[in-house]
Amino acid sequence: MNHYCEALEQLRRKSAHKLKEIGDQWRTPDPLFWGINAMFGPLVLDLFADESNAKCEAYYTAEDNALVHDWSERLADLGGAAFGNPPYSRASQHEEQYITGMVHIMEHTMAMRERGGRYVVLIKAATSETWWPEHADHIAFIRGRIGFDVPTWFKPADAQQVPTGAFFAGAIAVFDKTWTGPAIGYVNRDDLIARGETALAQMRWMAPRFVQSHIQAPEFDPIPEMANRVWPAEVHFLFDQVPAAGSLPAELQNKIRSHINRMKLDGIATDAIIQQTIKLTTAMGATA
């Protein structure tokens, strides 16, 4: 583990924290991220994250050190764009490789841009800084100061440390050599967040329907005749969760128990087994 990660781990383990200690660890709010995703995504790789704040299923942690990886190669496998809310701490190295430092982050981003892929970086609108990405293919300045969330591990040491957010003028830098739009643009903060809120609302609406349609036990039709009459106790327990099944003729009850047993052997979740058994019992009741 590099020294940056060691210091971060010690910080996380503290019983109380001060706001000034958060440093690189301010989190991008979900509505802001999804607004950026709507404009420049799909974003599928988070370049600077950990398991508690990653915005994408695929991500690099500080221990992974994104600056030693080929992001373009990863994006070629994932099929989307990369997102970064980079650390602003001073440049530091581990085993002669930079792990932080905005100058080095921007240099690596440009190198990846040359290899292909899109890299979308949320940064401070600090045009006087030496790291400012003058060679980005597009800069979208955000009208209105943007806020960030505290880390999930943050515990305020006292009332003065209760977070109100970190606010600063921001911009979105896009590195993509196939970009054909303008070099400079502007986006209203509230519009950006509204896009994100809309995307989140759609996901919340779709989530239960997606689960219902994808976590269904497989159909077994027709169910073969079974000479077996001895089933594990768990099969009987699941059978009893569907009271209507007990009213069917004995031969159909045995078929249902066989069906339950096969689903258990296939690793189907308990809730899905019960739902499938209810459907099967209803169908058998209609034809019995």
UniProtKB/TrEMBL annotation:
<dbReference type="GO" id="GO:0032259">
    <property type="term" value="P:methylation"/>
</dbReference>
<dbReference type="Pfam" id="PF05869">
    <property type="entry name" value="Dam"/>
</dbReference>
<dbReference type="GO" id="GO:0009307">
    <property type="term" value="P:DNA restriction-modification system"/>
</dbReference>
<dbReference type="InterPro" id="IPR008593">
    <property type="entry name" value="Dam_MeTrfase"/>
</dbReference>
<protein>
    <submittedName>
        <fullName>Phage N-6-adenine-methyltransferase</fullName>
    </submittedName>
</protein>
<dbReference type="GO" id="GO:0003677">
    <property type="term" value="F:DNA binding"/>
</dbReference>
<keyword id="KW-0489">Methyltransferase</keyword>
<dbReference type="GO" id="GO:0009007">
    <property type="term" value="F:site-specific DNA-methyltransferase (adenine-specific) activity"/>
</dbReference>
<keyword id="KW-0808">Transferase</keyword>
